[in-house]
Amino acid sequence: MPIDLLYNPQIFAEKLFNIMSGKSEKYQHKLVYMGLIARVIWRHQLILLPFYRSLIKYLEPKQKDVSQVLIALAESIHDLVPEDEIEAIIKHIIEHFVNDRCSEYTMTIGLNTLREVFKKMPSIITEEMMLYLATYYEYKNKNVSRAAKSLINFVKEYNPMLLEKKYRGNDRGGDDD
Predict the structure, then answer these.
(1) Which burial class, exposed, middle or buried, applies to 169 when counting CB atoms under 10 A from its CB (0-12, 13-18, 19+)?
(2) Domain span at residue 150?
(3) Is residue 176 part of a domain?
(4) Residues contacting 147, CB < 8 A, separation 6+
(5) pLDDT in tens for each of the 177 residues of the chain?
(6) For the residues of 139-157, what is the DSSP string, one character each?
(7) Total of domains in the chain
(8) Rounded to an integer, what distance in angstroms lies between the CA atom of residue 170 and that of residue 177?
(9) What is the pTM for the complete model shown?
(10) Are 33 and 2 in contact (CB under 8 A)?
């Protein structure tokens, strides 16, 4: 792939980030830059900490095309990214996307984004997070409850001890869903 042939991907990503951070760039262009930077970061396992910090300002439920920002976030995460950088974003997503004041669509994309982030960095999951997120298991909207079930099923495979006993399932290998 052409992205694998970049001469110096770190410098390339930093230059793109500087362009994206410029005040003169239109929002639609910034989204394209975010997607490309995220792909380069993931593909080359780069560390570009300001990128993660800059994403927080675009992570608001009412933000236009916020799902593209969430996709860029999920795509850019890899094993070498410091957990404390991602923890701040996770808390932000939980506070602004996964609560009863949000629309069902917002809650669904928030839960799905968290699942994708947790797949790439499962060590970031805490018992407190899962205690809160699991409450959406029986939510009145089926899309929200499916997203919560999907997240719970992932955690059940990764570390069932992070879940309350009622979400862990039985120990005989059967699936209780």
Answers:
(1) middle
(2) 83-168
(3) no
(4) 107, 108, 111, 112, 115, 136
(5) 888 888 899 999 999 999 999 888 899 999 999 999 999 999 999 999 999 999 999 999 998 899 999 999 999 999 999 999 999 999 999 999 998 889 999 999 999 999 999 999 999 999 999 999 999 999 999 999 999 999 999 999 988 898 888 888 765 444 444
(6) -SSHHHHHHHHHHHHHHHH
(7) 2
(8) 11
(9) 0.88
(10) no
